[in-house]
Amino acid sequence: MAASLISFQCVMLLCMAMFMVLGHGSSLSRNEHLEMKKLLQSLNKPAVKSIKYANGDIFDCIDIYKQPAFDHPLMKNYTIPKIPTSPPRGRINNAYASFNGSSVVRLQDGGCPDGTVPIRRVQMEDIRRAGSISNFGKKHGIHGPSSGGSINGLPGNHHWTKIDTKAGQFYGTQASFNVWKPEVRSLDHSSSSKLWVVAADQSELNTIEAGWTVDGRLYGDLEPRFFIYWTSDGYRNTGCFNTLCSGFVSVHKQVPIGAAISPVSKEGGDQFTVVISVWKDQREWWLYINDEVVGFWPQQFFNHLNTKADKLMWGGEVSSPNDGDLPPMGSGLNPTEHNFYAYKRACYTLVTFSSSMAITSSRSALLTSINLMTGRSASH
């Protein structure tokens, strides 16, 4: 009886969350609706080809020089640099990182034609879930991931658990994340596992973030997805998730930002990972997943990360609205017993980082294994 009641309450909460989102959308003024249509037209470029998935995702194959990044004045007459063939040496060995196998983030049927890149199509419902155009695709009220625990200034519960380096000069990092589908209960909750590349702090904070997330408000479902984020002013005005503003430049015709990830790890069963790398060459910060180059952040969008990073971080982040219960972080299971028990139950991350800009075999790297805190994360 108790279990049935809990299930019923969860269903009701989900229905209420969906009702509130749809209710907000139905009460839009004519001007708000027109502004949303204008934003859709700006983000959804003419497609050479479109690929539709059963989950409702549509990825449009866009001319590489017509993707949203090139709408920014700073990108006028910009030429995409030579694409690196592989991440720097000294990285995580994939055979070690992927104990059972790699999760896949890749388009079907060969992906997009040459000269085009996949961009996830934005729907009107995506903007409505954000509550406003100014909120769409952005984090708000965050003062930056400078210390663990709760994030001051963000409404509701918003916590992370992480490890980080001491202040220094850094030019890259790589992390292997085992991918889970945590039991996030509503579209207003989120749970992610990711890396941060950071320079400066507070209102001057520059950060690049990449990993996997379950974020119903952003995507409209509760599936784990590949995501990125950037800001150059402490999350105030600049930056966004994925390609929802000018910033990140996609270059891979088969690897889409914002796509669902599969397969996922199972408690006591097979573990599946994604290996995510962010490395700086002489100018750009390049993003890789499973050793495939996805794209880059041009240096002109940053005023501190344009030269180097001051700190690197790896961990998890969860949020819920109105001081509600936090969703699980990672697997949602605590590794309370011996290591073998923890291995197939805890969310783990393998990391390496570099303090050398030279992309050679002599670069300095550190490899370590981390068990992230799971379940509720308290302030500390």
From TrEMBL:
Alphabetized UniProt keyword annotations: Signal
Domain Neprosin PEP catalytic: start-end pairs: 151-380
Report the Gene3D superfamilies cross-referenced here.
Outer-capsid protein sigma 3, large lobe
Does Phosphoprotein appear among the keywords? no
Q: Does the keyword tRNA-binding apply?
A: no
- Identify the stretch annotated as signal peptide in this record: 1-25
One family from Pfam that matches here is Neprosin_AP
The superkingdom listed in its UniProt entry is Eukaryota
Give the matching InterPro entries: Glutamic_endopeptidase, Neprosin, Neprosin_propep
**Which PANTHER family did the record assign?**
PROTEIN, PUTATIVE (DUF239)-RELATED, PROTEIN, PUTATIVE (DUF239)-RELATED-RELATED
| The name this protein goes by in its record | Neprosin PEP catalytic domain-containing protein
